[in-house]
Amino acid sequence: MKKRYLAPFVLSALFFAACGGGDKAAQTTSETEHAADNSMVSPNANKPLTKGQELMAQSDCKTCHKEEMKLVGPSFKDIAGKYPNNDENVDKLADKIIKGGSGNWGEVAMLPHTNVSKDDAKEMVKYILSLSAN
Ligand code: HEC
């Protein structure tokens, strides 16, 4: 009778021992994966990133924007399709990122990014407008 109840305990003890041993290895892999996560701005993480891409990766853009797909905000490709890549649009959209706004793509507003400098915002816009498929 006693033996039958003991078996699951012995098994689970082995199970935990096995898990404990694997912990360290699992942790180091997830750290490296995290460091290389550029999935929002680049489908190919091995490509060197432009300055604008890096800045966007460090900011919150990816919570609302993706390159190809509409999320909360328009996709970067749609933005690139709407605005020709010239100085005037780069300047205008950089201001838009800093001040926020709504009404161009729908009723949902983009929050202001007052911590982003004008130069950094311009780098981001230059990257976004470079995505134009047309
Ligand atoms: C809270 C969600 C959210 C975040 C975060 C966000 N956006 Fe937006 N973004 C939007 C929405 C919504 C719009 C559409 C606004 C409109 O209709 O005018 C938009 C529009 C834009 C536009 C087009 C503006 C226009 O006038 O057509 C650009 C460029 C842009 N976002 C870049 C960025 C960048 C770069 C970041 C990161 C620094 C960022 N967004 C972060 C939601 C967001």
Structure description:
The chain has helices spanning 2-35, 51-58, 76-82, 87-99, 118-129. The protein is an all-alpha fold and 134 residues long. α4 (87-99) packs across α5 (118-129). The model is unreliable at 10-34 (pLDDT under 50). The protein binds heme C.
Q: What are the salient characteristics of this protein?
A:
mainly alpha; Cytochrome Bc1 Complex, Chain D, domain 2; 55% helix; globular; binds heme C
| The CATH C-level class name of the largest domain | Mainly Alpha
Gap between N and C termini: 76 Å
Give the rounded overall mean pLDDT: 79
One letter per element, helices H and strands E, the order comes to HHHHH
The CATH architecture of the largest domain comes to Orthogonal Bundle
Count of beta strands:
0
β-strand percent reads under 5%
* Fourth-tier CATH superfamily name of the largest domain: Cytochrome c-like domain
- Note poorly predicted spans: 10-34
Number of discrete helical segments = 5
The total tally of domains equals 2
Itemize the secondary structure elements and their pairings.
Blueprint: H1 2-35, H2 51-58, H3 76-82, H4 87-99, H5 118-129
This protein binds heme C (HEC).
Give a quick rundown of the structure.
With 134 residues, the chain is mainly alpha-helical. The protein is 55% helix and 0% strand.
